[in-house]
Amino acid sequence: MDHLFFLRALLRRRLMTTPQLEKLIKNKPDEEIRSEGYELQYAEDFNNWTDLAHSDWEPGFVYPSKEFTSVHSYTNENQAYVGGKNVEVKDSKLIIHTNREKTEAPAWDPKKGMVMQEFDYTSDAINNASKLEVEVGSVITVKARCHGLLNHGIYLRSKNHIPFISVFNYTGRKLFCGVKANIHSDENKKEITGLQPLTDIIYTVVWNENEIVWLVNNLEVYRTLNLIPKGEKLYLHLYSFMFKGLEWNTPGELDVDWIRVYKKL
């Protein structure tokens, strides 16, 4: 299988540190990327803006109908999304804060529809659907870290929410990657063990026609031939949340240093 240049390199360099891998990914000349059959489609270093209004990102979810409320939580969650108020860019890093504070906000209930609900925490979700469409034949790589006992995630998601590919999903106690191709299938996911999500980690997803490969730092952690999304255009979705009833949940942060998306020519 034809992988991107740095994937070939990192699979040969088992002892490569995170800073070494980051330098390899970020500094490789564009002509060498093209020689491997890929080009840089999208890059975000979080150093050209300090608020969402001047960025590629928007708060909330994305729906086919613009009339549907994009900023909302769900009734089984314990955090309210607050439309970007908990998003900060500092020292060229994106930070999504989850704070302990009571508020009332819209929540989606599967039976009742959109309702107002009281929440014990606030957080945020952001997307770049207006700036990026990721398709089969792409490589996505992200440098991030997770803080706190709650859920953090970076996903490739469709405007119908399914299909999706998780770059990673941290539950506060465990770390997963996975894919869900349609509403009728379960999520095909794999637990990633042996890592400390509080440290800098480079997550990579290789999305090919007939398989998806996940890597963390320089190691392949999962490969699947099942439930591969095809004919879909996905966007990046970053968020933090917590389910109701989990007493061990704590406030926390999702920190993202940079994002790269490469596309097969």
Question: How would you portray this structure in words?
Answer:
With 265 residues, the protein is mostly beta strands. Helices cover 9% and strands 46% of the residues. The strands form 2 sheets. Strands 1, 3, 4, 5, 6, 7, 9, 14, 15, 16 and 18 form an 11-stranded mixed sheet that branches. Strand 14 (201-207) and strand 15 (212-216) form a beta hairpin. The chain is globular, with a radius of gyration of 18 Å. The two termini are 15 Å apart. 40% of the residues are buried.
Give the quaternary arrangement of the chains. single chain
* 3D shape: globular
Low-confidence stretches at least 5 residues in length (pLDDT < 50)? 1-5, 10-15
The radius of gyration over CA amounts to 18 Å
Mean pLDDT: 88
- N-C termini distance: 15 Å
Order of helices and strands: HHHEEEEEEEEEEEEEEEEEE
Largest sheet: 11 strands, mixed
- How much strand? over 45%
Assign a percent range to the helix content.
under 10%
The helix count comes to 3
* Structural class based on helices, strands and sheet pairing: mainly beta
In total, how many beta strands?
A: 18
